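Incident log entry.

Two folding requests arrived from the same account within the same minute. Monitoring flagged them as a possible duplicate submission, but the sequences differ. Recording both here for audit purposes.

Request one:
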Amino acid sequence: MLYDIKLNNAILAEDKHLPMYDEMSEKFNVEYIAGGIFIHPFWMLQIPGATSYMGSIGKDKYGEAMKKDATAAGVNVHYYEDESTSTGTCGVCVLGGERSLIANLSAANCYKVEHLKKPENWALVEKAKFYYIAGFFLTVSPESIQLVREHAAAHNKVFTMNLSAPFICEFFKDVQEKCLPYMDYVFGNETEARTFSRVHGWETDDVEQIAIKISQLPKATGTYKRTTVITQGADPVVVAEDGKVKKYPVIHLPKEKLVDTNGAGDAFVGGFLSQLVHGKAIEDCVRAGCYASNVVIQRSGCTYPQKPDFN
């Protein structure tokens, strides 16, 4: 069966994709790995409880695996557990080291803002000083994002998001635009950046110019200037702030050492944030991001060695 998937892309599963998950299990030696951004900043920080994570899972074996892996990693997870839907899964197809993601959101699509408002959960928001929300969450609970971004703005905290996928920029443009004024750091890759540019009618594919334009979009507060960080695979990382662009080289990796690129973007963000929370300079944040993503792409799936070797 043809599933119409493309390399270096991320899509939401449609009905035609649903048989693919069983087909993968039957025909290939499939690895099952707990997903989510939560592991990346913790692995670099190595401080139990320093990061907290909220999302939605089902009451099934995959949900239990998510809780078990997150807790073992030292992450403070507060999941909303949906009793009527299975835990979300993401099919990762890898060819020549390049990945394609097909996400069947299931319970991940069922997060309720009421869960965020519970005192024990909102206490985590109040305690935090930095926030990161994946762009994918725009499709799930914009109300939750609104509460967090407005809290961050009101208390001079750092709010960050990711463009996450071309379809987010294209089909969820309106809700994304409502968040942009609150974003102090915007992450993305070159494909997402170019889609963002096209959707906004900027008529340029120049990643450096796009990064500058994103950084100069209106801000809700003047506490922090917006910084745009665009990764480009093996090409330099583009960082735009104050109307200027700097490019930072990535760590060279011989092609024979590339296992798969799944998780590279999340790993970069996790590494970047691990230094940002310590008040480090941008070049140190980028260097940490490049290190974390370099480690991940040499392994199968979103996995790490026990501890980082990063100075």
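Request two (distinct sequence, not a duplicate):
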Amino acid sequence: MAGILAWFWNERFWLPHNVTWADLKNTEEATFPQAEDLYLAFPLAFCIFMVRLIFERFIAKPCAIALNIQASGPQIAQPNAILEKVFTAITKHPDEKRLEGLSKQLDWDVRSIQRWFRQRRNQEKPSTLTRFCESMWRFSFYLYVFTYGVRFLKKTPWLWNTRHCWYNYPYQPLTTDLHYYYILELSFYWSLMFSQFTDIKRKDFGIMFVHHLVSILLITFSYVNNMARVGTLVLCLHDSADALLEAAKMANYAKFQKMCDLLFVMFAMVFITTRLGIFPLWVLNTTLFESWEIVGPYPSWWVFNLLLLLVQGLNCFWSYLIVKIACKAVSRGKVSKDDRSDIESSSDEEDSEPPGKNPHTATTTNGTGGTNGYLLTGSCSMDD
């Protein structure tokens, strides 16, 4: 074990040339980031999760009820013991052969059986009330952490001149505000990492899992080798659009369509400007070029920049989704259900049709008659 730890914490990987871990030990004159500080994130992640449960129960839910958001979910599938047994014990997505067998057994047409399974799957989806509570929690946290980040960074020299991220590196002391900011963000991402398995399931679950993992690795990497200054720029920049997204989702769930559209446009503008403009021209410029000039490359420098480039790839992917939704909104006159919809998007307009009825007479399952779709969900931040 000692050999493994010595290999993992090899100074030649983590630190610039001629710098050792002994040089970065805390002294009476200065405090530096220590790897053991990161253990604090685990109990804090649990605390954040508990605060979330309390917040959603005693603050978000009453707000939702005041806005007439009910706990009703998708339409309940017609009770059928045979189909229920197949759904719970065999498969939730029957293939064509099984559908034909069930059709003969029940004397239903295949389309009606497909509709039943779709309704039954949607039946397990969370209600609009649950969605609103989750979005309100995230909105509140993102607004707080972004506000804190701005108030902290405006007093720092590296916000105004990014070369200060590398002057005297890595002998840059760790301040109390910077330590709090980092541990809070890391704790939040750990809480998301675990809660996403119980949260609303979305189509980009895998991508969001990669995103949270990259975010945790970036925060951990930049803290251990004291790249925390540039790390705060990445965190604050990626937090800037998240509150607007969650606010737009809340307006959508409350059926305030004009407000939803306005907030979504604001979110899209901030997101694309920060992720595709400011991030590569400002942050990646300093991590790739200014740091090379002032400090020079070393192994963990390459890994850190590789992770940042991976984040930029995710930014491009989500920007594509946003532009795609915006184009649909222009053609339809409103922000509508998108590729990350919480309810299955295929033929949802047929879900309320009883077996044997004409599908063209059906309405949408979200209870809005097609007037209010589901907005792009979730957020990307170093995060994102």
